[in-house]
Design a protein that fits this description.
It contains eight helices and six strands. The strands form two sheets. The chain has a four-stranded parallel beta sheet with strand order 4-3-5-6. The radius of gyration is 21 Å and the shape is globular.
Length: 200
């Protein structure tokens, strides 16, 4: 007879399996690891999850998540408030911050426009972006949406709306990554790299 894990363990596996990148098998391994390391991992994780639930919120200015509102980035007086970098998700903010690549402010859209998924401008924080960009302080909006069809569509839509306000927009360059070898790149990346070439 096939033995099942206890109800509490199965519930934990099912909850972890809902996380992006974790399927049922990975969730089982994670749960077993947590149980084996209860004092070192499970107890501190429980406390950290409760703390995050009670303190983390979405920044009312940019859409980032932080334990303060406005977030640490928006509240930082050293940030260049004349530039806003528009990204799809909070993870994109974290990636740019890790790279120490941006000194301005951010705006998180919460996704991209997609006809198939039924996502319209009203479903994203585009209206809030237009209000922020039109406050008289912002001089440039950098569109850092992903180089996908939906990302490009979203960037084009926002550009058209910002043009109505007379604001300068720019797009992140896409092409050959640092250290990349041409033979390993896909055709779309190579084509974009050729089109975005610049004097040497």
């Amino acid at each position: 007879m096939k033995r099942q894990a206890g109800h509490e363990i199965e519930k934990l596996i099912q909850l972890l399996a809902r996380l992006p990148g974790l399927g049922p098998r990975s969730a089982r391994r994670a749960v077993l690891h947590l149980i084996k390391n209860r004092e070192k991992l499970m107890d501190p994780l429980t406390v950290a999850l409760e703390d995050a639930r009670d303190t983390v919120s979405v920044c009312h200015e940019c859409g980032n998540v932080d334990s303060c509102n406005p977030c640490t980035i928006c509240a930082d007086p050293r940030r260049d408030r004349s530039m806003i970098c528009v990204v799809e998700e909070v993870g994109d903010v974290w990636a740019l911050e890790r790279a120490n690549a941006w000194s301005g402010l951010y705006h998180v859209l919460g996704g991209t426009l997609t006809a198939l998924g039924g996502v319209t401008p009203d479903d994203l924080s585009i209206g809030q972006l237009l209000s922020r960009a039109g406050n008289g302080t912002v001089k440039e909006v950098v569109l850092a949406t992903n180089a996908t069809v939906d990302g490009q569509t979203t960037a084009h839509y926002i550009t058209e709306r910002l043009k109505e306000q007379g604001l300068a927009t720019s797009r992140l360059a896409h092409g050959v990554p640092v250290g990349g070898e041409l033979d390993y790149l896909d055709e779309g990346t190579l084509t974009q790299a050729i089109r975005a070439r610049r004097p040497f």
